């Protein structure tokens, strides 16, 4: 068991799936929250209750159900704004996931509908990302440079799994329009030095975006203190449902950006030859939104806030320290990423010499009921950089225990015996 002040046993009782027995009587050991977290009863029941007793479309119906649904939906926006320290609720845009939030921002650059010089993009202009990004923070920018003729550049990654800042002044220059990097790597667990990158970006007038999908669920995050321009994250990694994500952006930038999608609700008025658009945030929320999912995400925020993100962070830090020590005892295990607690989160990716990660994952699941993720984790360029096709990844959250890490270590020893 863990010695943190977090009452993990009480928390685990909130997550029905954690009490499940798998075929053969194996208890579930869920170490895949970096992929998608499990959901507490409080979130499940909030969504069920809304669907059963309050559901209606939002922003349209002039009746009791419509009012209740709209109020619950907009209340979720308020909760998200407070959770990440947004200066204004109107700076919180609901999307279907972090990928859509990243695409929304990328769409605004080089768009003929946007004449703001901060978003004009063409040959000679540059976008900077990093080699450790999730595909969702690579592909939209690749598509953008294909449309505009701009140039895509990227930070390298050191052998220790850190962002290589040695060439920062040459990489981020007066030609850079936006720097978009992960706040925390979904493979390495690395927490990136945002302040240093931001300082250089401000020197040259570039915007900065963070993919915070792996940080917002695990650490206190305050967008005003980060002082960046855009932050994207997703609900399903923070004990909320899938199908709902968030883009936070500076109000003045969101006002300058054209709509990403057209349709109902995002309009002010429509004629046959042109339309005018609703104010932010509704300008970016075309059509019927993921109503119940947003309300479920609001319930997830309530749940995490009730526990306290400082406590969540401290618990995961203790788990990570324990896991780093425990995995060192597994022969021929090679950790990909930082091997200390310094600027890292609870995501550990590794290889076992001579054993493919897919075999590792299958045996852990079949024999021990341990759920980990295997593959390149939607970060193939990072795996190419380390010269490996795939890794095994164990990722921790507020409901995990050191006993589960012990189970992982026993499982890895068994995998090695199988392939001996």
TrEMBL record:
Pfam families per UniProt: Aminotran_5 (PF00266)
SUPFAM superfamilies cross-referenced by the UniProt entry: PLP-dependent transferases
Molecular-function GO terms, alphabetical: cysteine desulfurase activity; pyridoxal phosphate binding
GO BP: cysteine metabolic process
Keyword set includes Transferase: yes
CDD domains for this protein: SufS_like (cd06453)
Top-level division of the source organism's lineage: Bacteria
Domain Aminotransferase class V, residue spans: 29-408
EC number(s) from the headed UniProt entry: 2.8.1.7
Catalytic activity: (sulfur carrier)-H + L-cysteine = (sulfur carrier)-SH + L-alanine
Keyword terms, alphabetized: Pyridoxal phosphate, Transferase
Record's keyword annotation contains Transferase: yes
Root EC class: transferase
Cofactor(s) recorded in Swiss-Prot or TrEMBL: pyridoxal 5'-phosphate
Annotated function: Catalyzes the removal of elemental sulfur and selenium atoms from L-cysteine, L-cystine, L-selenocysteine, and L-selenocystine to produce L-alanine.
Stated family: Belongs to the class-V pyridoxal-phosphate-dependent aminotransferase family. Csd subfamily.
NCBIfam families on file: sufS
The protein's name in its UniProt record: Cysteine desulfurase
Taxonomic lineage: Bacteria, Bacillati, Actinomycetota, Actinomycetes, Streptosporangiales
